[in-house]
Design brief:
The chain is α/β, with parallel strands linked by helices. The chain is 32% helix and 28% strand. The radius of gyration is 29 Å and the shape is elongated.
């Protein structure tokens, strides 16, 4: 499991004694089954003990829905053992003796006990065994380690203060949690403890799908030259990227500098997506593959009609996200994978407004920080990024992004409406291009069947304020 290995700092240490903690339904058993089916072989078999949790047959019935489940491994590389009868006695020695007997007979490399917390709770109800709890835990940990087995004990350990004995014995502790926020299910995993290696700190989002558990490690921005890929190195030169819209390259001072990020801001219907589509189509035309991350559009709409053949021809990668419980790190991971797979040099994110809505509410609090991390990752990959942002045209308000994120981008193009002789016309201007000169003109443009057609600069009055001519009065009016 790549994501799990990343947050663990390279994987689970061999022969370690680990706890998998979490509330019911958080994914503990699924995580352990995924680990077990990935690692178990005839040469390195696994034992899976069940206590007061689900019976093995019922558990297997539901686990077969996951793609990692391999029927051929059951009873050959993986053996399931029910400890319910032994655990019900509350006799620590009997439970330990049964585990010992099975391990000696099977010589497993991997051992799982689910749910181990239920064994402890049952034993705690027996006063005569209360003093033996600590001894039992120590013996179990020592024996599992002595048998050269990597072991996993599964239960809700962190919610009960009575679990402190086993927490101190364990070499590793993984905590899984889940919460419902509005209509979104948010799941997170954290490495609370892992002896002998540096782990990735913090809580990391994960999703349970038909493939099992997919973990999305919190992205770290790398800026060193050793982290720059081949695509990034090829783009470090000062070349310009053509936009695919006549006259727009001239407005940008010769095209958008390679590796820059560009924000297209404007109200609804101003042509942001059409401009972004032209940007990707131009890249495909000159053999510069691209990726579009679409949050608002659905199949059959404008960008798909233009880019459909290019998407089918693998010139442009498509990530169409409309879920409402995503994490930013999940989006970044999927985007990074497609960029590397397609060797893409152009990326379109349409739009930031849809991006925010697609993120689960718990992650929206840090949306601005998440954008910063995402832009850092994309910059490290050396791709040229175009983002669109929906803005309400308030006429007197010249904001460029509702997220205060305009400073993150290297270039900004603003699209607006003006009123001319009782009708609306569209205008655009280049607000900034970092490290480069650019046109300061405000130019009319039309949206036609051929895309965006940029016309002449606006003239005839001193300025434009929400489409209304404005003039500077030199004398004070007298009432």
């Amino acid at each position: 499991m790549q994501g799990l290995d990343d947050i663990l700092g390279g994987g689970i240490p061999e022969y370690s004694f680990n706890l998998i903690s979490g509330s019911p339904g958080s994914g503990k058993t699924t995580l352990c089954h995924q680990i077990m089916f990935a690692l178990a072989t005839p040469e390195r078999p696994a034992l899976f003990f069940t206590a007061f949790g689900e019976p093995p047959l019922k558990m297997l019935r539901y686990q077969q829905q996951f793609t990692f489940f391999d029927t051929d491994k059951v009873n050959e590389s993986i053996r399931f053992i029910n400890l319910s009868a032994d655990a019900a006695t509350g006799d620590f020695n009997q439970v330990l003796a049964r585990i010992t007997q099975e391990i000696e007979a099977y010589s497993p490399a991997l051992v799982f006990v689910d749910s181990f917390r239920s064994v402890l709770r049952e034993a705690e109800h027996q006063p005569e065994d209360a003093n033996n709890l600590q001894r039992f835990l120590q013996l179990l940990g020592l024996q599992l380690t002595g048998w050269q087995a990597t072991s996993f004990l599964i239960g809700d350990f962190l919610s009960d203060s009575g679990s402190h004995q086993i927490l101190t014995v364990a070499d590793g502790l993984l905590s899984l949690e889940q919460s419902i926020e509005r209509n979104s299910m948010v799941r997170k995993i954290q490495v609370m403890k892992m002896r002998g290696q540096a782990t990735l700190p913090g809580k990391h989002a994960f999703r349970i799908s038909s493939d099992g558990i997919n973990i999305f490690p919190a992205t770290i921005i790398h800026k060193g030259p050793e982290d720059v890929g081949e695509v990034s190195k090829a783009l470090l030169c000062k070349k310009r990227v053509t936009m695919g819209v006549p006259h727009l390259d001239d407005m940008l001072g010769g095209g958008l500098p390679s590796g820059h990020s560009l924000l297209i801001a404007g109200p609804s219907g101003s042509g942001k997506t059409i401009l972004a589509t032209a940007f990707l189509a131009e890249g495909a035309r000159i053999s510069e593959p691209g990726v579009i991350v679409a949050f608002e559009q659905t199949p059959g709409q404008s960008w798909l009609r233009t880019l459909g053949d290019m998407i089918q021809g693998q010139q442009i990668g498509l990530i169409n996200l409309r879920a409402l419980d995503l994490s930013v790190d999940e989006i970044i991971q999927r985007l990074t994978h497609v960029i590397k797979e397609r060797k893409a040099t152009r990326v379109v994110i349409d739009s930031l407004s849809g991006f925010e809505l697609a993120v689960a509410p718990t992650f929206r609090k840090d949306f601005r920080e998440s954008l910063f991390r995402m832009m850092g990752i994309l910059s490290g990959l050396g791709v040229t990024v175009l983002m669109t942002s929906e803005l309400e045209d308030r006429y007197t308000d010249l904001r460029f992004s509702p997220y205060g994120a305009a400073f993150l981008t290297d270039a900004i193009i603003v699209q607006r409406y003006i009123e001319v002789e009782s009708r609306l016309e569209r205008v655009m201007s280049v607000v900034k291009v970092r490290g480069s000169s650019h046109s300061a003109e405000i130019r009319r443009y039309d949206i036609t069947d051929k895309g965006i057609v940029i016309g002449d600069p606006v003239s005839g009055f001193e300025g434009i304020l929400g489409g209304q001519p404005t003039r500077t009065k030199m004398t004070k009016s007298v009432e």
